[in-house]
Structures are given as C-alpha cells and as structure tokens.
Amino acid sequence: xxxxxTVPTPDEHAPPVEAVERLGGVLADLxxxxxxxxxxxxxxxxEDGRLTSAxxxxxxxxxxxxxxxxxxxxIALRMVRRERERGSRRDVYVVQDDAWHDVLVQRDGVYAxxxxxxxxxxxxxxxxxxxxxxxxxxxxFLAFVQREMEAMAGRWxxxxxxxxxxxxxxxxxxxxx
Length: 177
Description:
By secondary structure, the protein is mainly α. It has helices spanning 17-29, 34-45, 53-60, 64-76, 99-105, 107-125, 130-162, 169-175, and strands at residues 50-52, 81-84, 91-94. The longest helix has 33 residues, at 130-162. The radius of gyration is 20 Å and the shape is elongated.
C-alpha cells in the first residue's frame, strides 16, 4: 500500500471508526441521509460529544463541504448545536448526552408544521371526503403522539433520575443486562 493510501492513525480521543460507521449505516438504512448519519454517530461515540469540522473530516475521510452540509442538516433538526471553541475562532459541533430525547420530543419543529399542512390539505379536499377523513385521522394521530411524547418525556426524566445524578453509564450498567 502506498504511503498516500494509508489510513490516518486515529487520535486517542476519537471514537472507534468501526462503531461510527456501523451506527451511521444503521441510521442511513432507517432513512437518515448518509453524511448526517455518520456525523451524528461520530459525535455520539466521541467521549465528550464534541468535534470540530477538521476532526470530522479526518475521522470520516470526507470533504469539508460534506461535513458542512451534514452539520447544517443536523442543526436544522436540532440534533447537534454549534459552539465557538474557547480561545479560538473555530466552531465545534456538540451533541447532547440525551440527544435522542431531544430529537424525539421536539414537537414544535415537527408536529406543528405537519399538522398545519395536513389540516390545510383536509380543507382543500373537503372534510367529508374519504381523503379528508384520512387527513383528519392523520392530524388526530399526530396530536395523540404529541400527548404521548410529553407523557413519555416525563417518565423518561424520572427513569433517568433513577440511573444516578447524571445518568452516567456507571449507573446504567448496574441496572441493565
């Protein structure tokens, strides 16, 4: 193998590439775009949940433009956030420890516009038509899901508190498996 073809040695704080690729692949198989899935997976598997664009480029072996597009998508979905690296002009991308909770319960960003569009479509096709009934059922389903997500978020908070003060893996290990 020529020197230029060698895979860079990962830094000691980088997540295992195999874990990132496997998780990213599963997320992509479930419908997430490939690069956002890989970036999200890298952030989840990184010890402190923080990586710069340059670190993501090195880890994932993609272009800066690919990272930029993926991060833009993830920020829009509120799956990650951008912060300024202390003492630097570089941005760092951060995933919350409880990222899945935040993604799944962000009802205003998902449910409200979808419900409004469904209701508008129902008005256009007529509420008494089969299509209108189907659209109304969709609106009612989303309202139901929203209520259930709120209740589930409360139960999750209680459960997470039972894992320990910070929900650390040490507390989880004693209760799981």
